[in-house]
Amino acid sequence: MPEMTLLGWFHTILGVLAVLSGFYTLYKYRVISFKESSGKLYILVTLLVAGSALGIYNQGGFGVAHILGVLTLIALAGGYIMERYKWFGFYSKYFQALGYTSTLLFHMIPAITDFLRRLPIGDPFIDSFEDPLLLNFHFSFLVIYLIGITFQMVWLKRQAPAY
């Protein structure tokens, strides 16, 4: 595994801040929103993390982490547009939640991959992207995401005003 560059350290430290602020925001408010200070922190730091991911090429070229960075930027833009301009009216809040919450999944996939490929130093947990431990983590994150987004959708539906 290549050594961490200054950009890599910047990306990693901000990534940890983003994930912590994202989970805190979900815990406190049930949805990520630019209107809340912790949501704003999450969105802005995630924007920096996704942007910086596009400049890291220690795996030899454009790869899955770069694709996740691009997807994160798209999801952030979509979430922000839905929150700010409400292109789909009443349903915009669902698309906002889907966009912003998806970015947490997009954070977790490369984060666990890099963690397991780097630590412990000298004898990392995994040595390939096909390692069953890594694939199980990815699958677990996907299941947790699907359960979480389902709970968010139900919660949002219950917040709907009665007519």
Structure commentary:
About 70% of the residues lie in helices and about 0% in strands. By secondary structure, it is mostly helical. The chain has one domain (about 5-160). Helix 1 (about 5-30) runs antiparallel to helix 2 and helix 3 (about 65-85) packs antiparallel against helix 4 (about 90-120).
What would a concise description of this structure say?
With 163 residues, the protein is an all-alpha fold. It is 72% helix and 0% strand.
List the helices and strands and how they pair.
Blueprint: H1 6-29, H2 37-53, H3 64-85, H4 92-118, H5 132-158
Task: Please provide the ordered H/E string of secondary-structure elements.
Answer: HHHHH
Distance between the termini: 58 Å
Number of self-contained structural domains = 1
SS strand fraction: under 5%
Helix content: over 70%
Q: State the total count of DSSP E strands.
A: 0
Largest sheet: none
Q: Shape, please?
A: globular
Structural descriptors:
0% strand; globular
